Amino acid sequence: MATPADLTVPVLERIDDPESLRDEWSELAERGGSYFATPEWQLLWWEHYGGGRELLLTAERGQGGRLETILPFYVWRARPLRIVRALGHGPGDELGPVGERAVTGPALARWAASERFDVLLAEQLPGEGWAQHTPGARLLSRAGSPVLTFDGMDWKELMASKSRNFREQVGRRTRGLEREHDVRYRLVDGPDGLEASLDTFFRLHGLRWGQGSIIARTEAFQRDFAAIAAARGWLRLWLLSLDGSPAAAWLGFRFGGAECYYQAGRDPAYDSASVAFVLLAHTVRAALEDGAREYRFLRGDEPYKYRFANADPGLETIAIAGSAVGRAALAASPLARRIRASLASR
Questions:
Q1: Do residues 229 and 222 touch, judged by C-beta distance below 8 A?
Q2: Which of 126, 163, 174, 221 gets the highest tally of CB atoms within 10 A of its CB?
Q3: pLDDT attached to residue 121
Q4: 147-308 has CATH 3.40.630.30 classification
């Protein structure tokens, strides 16, 4: 019988005990630089939202038994179609197979060919070209995911790489705020004072976005993950106060050398003072000066992100038909419209 050391071709293996993979999984996620790919995020999401559904967690090992890909899927609906989705959808930004892109694409194709489903909805896959290289796949949507790569620049050099108008706005808005108010920045990156700081964040987020936002609807999950991230040293929660009153908050995570801007909130009473823009610029500068290799703005093509960013690998959502029924369903425009509507409403 072949041993793991004898393996020369990728082998898919269903994982019934996710904890048995935690260390290898963590190393794989860190190499990819996405905290959404960690077992901490994925398994916590499953704990909150799995709801007794069927987990289809699969590992693919390559030569020597080395873990190369995690395929974190589950059965979202069993009837009338068996629809499979990736763990993490909703609050997650970068989903799908965990590992280096050179191996995750072929691994997804092999998994899809061996698994039983009618439709696989693979959302927010990092990069481009997934549909072209996956048999039976249909591209449903593309989304922006802007990135600012620092490339060894200091703050002065970074500003010099931007337009004169942008440089002036960063300086003028910051100086104006400091002239009119006592401005304080506070970073929460550990357990001390975390709950109270999260209270402030959720209050400011609610003031800006209301209680129907995905962050508000997943608050219990967000608090649990923030506590885990604080214990791991990943958490970056910035609070900006004016004259002692909280005015803006920025929630992000530092993982694998990348600073990730997840969500923010602000008090609309201070909108004329551009508190959100000033705080955002502050977090970019802090990440650069701390030695982060890049700043990820994550999902969304909002224009303000591109004013800072210098690259955009993008995200793709594809649907893969795994049966004749699935192919017929995907060919029918009503199903495609319903899928797109569900993605837009999250």
A1: no
A2: 126
A3: 95
A4: yes
